[in-house]
Amino acid sequence: MSRIVESLKKLNVENDAESYRQDNDRINKKVELTLSLEERVSLNQNDYILSVYGTQSEPEFRIGAALSDHSCIIYSVGESLNRTIMLDHNQSPIVGIKFSPISKNVLYIATNDGLITACDLRAKGKVVAEFKDNTENGKIKPLASFDLSCDERLIVGGTEHTSGDAFILFWDIRQSNSKLENKNSLLGGYWESHMDDITCLTFHPVKRNVLVSGSTDGLMNIFDLTQSSEDLALTCSLNTESSVDRLGWLTDDSLWCTTHTQTLQLWECESASAYATFARSDLAMSQNDDPDNCYLVRFHATNAFGQPFVLAGSSTVKGENLKCLNIKKNRLETYYEIVGNKQIVRDSWMHEKSGSLVTVGEKGTVNIWRQMESSIQQNSSHKLLTKIGTDRDRHHRTKPY
User: Fold this and answer.
1) What is the three-class DSSP state of 13?
2) Which of 59, 75, 203, 377 has its CA 20 to 30 A from that of 289?
3) Could you tell me the pTM of the whole model?
């Protein structure tokens, strides 16, 4: 995480002129990611893939692909892409999937009908635990997002706006009554911090009691879960003045988020300010790109390719383009061309050790992209970025309510 702080948050270049020139040359060459593995997950042309998540195990790793038909397909990835298990117990749309942070054999699936299930992949995907909130006369609150703490002790679910409130619900995974019994393992919840659907929840990668939430109400809220009340737990409220689609941690005190209007924002939590904002028009990398047909997939706060990058796509008459963009001198630039993409991409995930970028999308295809041997970077720091965001408009409220 500290390396990402230096390359993204501070964004100060201290390289000498020769090093800067060499790195600049590399960017201008538009190095490519090439298709390594590909799999169509369903024979039904109407099935598309909503999301993807994987394990960081090696040399082989696992990925799960959540489909629009409510099923989830598990693959083992190495030199080939092998389908291992199909999970079809879900009764409503999948809103998220996550592998256990401490076991590659346990997969959690959250669905819109208010249910989160834990599946044991060693037992052919058997559901071994369920988490739901049936405290209100048995009425289940529809989920829109969920996450697991880094030590797999807490599970959190974010609901749609329902009955006048949007809830953040907490369960203790360790409680024995979370097993398949007619008991409720709900620890409690928050319902005063958001006024609309909670679209994303992300625990801190190393601090198990720190959580950030994002909502269509435009707010990103950071909570300290050790506090005794929701009001005390809310340590920071950031107003994106948009509708939050996805978010994640850059560092201990900075965040990235993408919005439903296809903008990328980088935030400094302590100062409650966005130090970089990129609009949809910034995604157009060539004259053939119509900004209205450009879209953001996900920001990847990883140094697996040398520095963090944003994955973005565009639809043209010639096909579906996909690129990795980096941040340089207050603008986005092409970092990697991705050759051979044929679908609108809905989600992506990165296997750190192998440098494998996994994408999924609307044609129901899993694609795995890797660097060409000649383009593998020798220097993983790539301190290319100059300070950004200092001259941008920062008119926004930090405590809108």
Assistant:
1) coil
2) 377
3) 0.86
